[in-house]
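During the no-cost extension, the postdoctoral fellow (Dr. R.K.) reprocessed legacy sequence entries with the updated structure-token encoder. One reprocessed record is reproduced below for audit purposes.
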Amino acid sequence: MLAVHPVREVLRAWPVLIGLLFFGRARRVDGGLWGLVALVVVVLLGLARWYTTTYRVTPEQVQVRRGLLRREVLTVPRDRVRTVDVTASPLHRLLGLARVVIGTGRSDRQNDGLKLDALSTADAERLRTELLHRPAAVTTQTPVAPGSEAVITRFQPAWLRYGPFSLSGLVIVGVVAGFLSRLANEANVQFGFLETVAGWLARTPVWLAVVEVIVLFLVVVAATSTAAYVVAYWGFRLSRQASGTLHIMRGLLTQRSITLEERRLRGVELSETLLLRPVGGARCIAVATGLRVGRGAERGGSLLLPPAPLAEAVRVGADVLGDPVPLTVELVRHGPRAARRRYTRALVTTGAVPVAFGLLWWFAGSPAWLALVALVLPALGVPLAWDRYRNLGHALVGRHLVVREGSLVRRRTALNRDGIIGWNLRQSFFQRRAGVVTVEATTAAGRQRYAAEDVPAGLAVPLIDQALPGLLAPFLDDRLGDRA
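Re-encoded structure tokens follow.
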């Protein structure tokens, strides 16, 4: 337990340590000495963090005390605990330890919950069970015997074919390329292999060099994405426990265990990126209170299924919802006016680019080929507009409101009507001219706003009234009374 905090502080401060080393070389002083001093300071800070952090669990609340010069006490009522996230990095696993993050009812980007680092594995599991061991309050499809768990889905090796289409490798390649470039410029480090490749490409015909670079780039990104997929999701398992919680486990090097109360669920979301759709892949994401939102749902613990076959994502979502219909029902289309708006916006936006390049060529003498190449954009905008319209839709099915939108990322969300706390009707100037309106359902879970875009104006109010009967009656009656 004592070793984790100093090592973690060193890993956090490694850019500063490397900077001191290079600074010392540039100034012709002993950079190693300065780096050693900084390393000792960082280790002492880690020891102080470990020594001054304590926690206590009472029947009413969870308390965490920390700080040496400035004491800090964090308190969370136990009835506000929504999730318990247990993570074990390779260092933690080597020492038999784990890191526990206790999620509360907040779901904003700044909230990370209470953190308890370097607990023993047994203590982490005991704490997870103690905080979320409550009687089940929901009826589910998969029956669970008392004291046991029912596995909903688990990782299959066949899912690896979706790894290259996750695009995580693109981010990794970009970060590594940026780091190597900066290292070469500032530290004067030479990479002989890259120089050899660059020289060989310089002697190759331009068209062939471009093709080879593109192929090499795609191969590297695909391989890196697959490796990242394996590291993140190997051993993935989603199960339902008798206490009324969902338990998610995943990770090859860093193992992560997340426990989520089902009574906090407000729906599920099927997410299909543009690259996953042609190969029939999708993610399944929980819409729940107390989980972090923003990019990367997996970082917030809401990922119910990594990129996997669409049929499996639908099955998992149906099991969690307790109803398969919301994820397969035919949706109400939003009509020709919504389609016209998408074609208009696509053509105006993409058509402005070749016009701008044409004006630059005419008045400023810029290369004419830029305007000719830009003519491809309107041709790409038309299928994009068609796809965006094709993905628009909504439906009311039993206890759920279903909305779908998006093209680059198509999202189909089934939201429990009992979890809707309000509605927003938005209508821009151009929407008023087109006779459409955006209907937003607000909730305390997930992204907090789920919109059905460009709904025909005549369907907006009936949609809200059917979803939550009687909610708009006082306002409609007042409006009718004013008109009378």
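Confidence is low (pLDDT under 50) at residues 136-140, 479-484. The chain has five domains: 4-52, 57-155+234-326, 161-232, 329-333+392-483, 335-388. The remaining legacy entries will be reprocessed before the final report is submitted.
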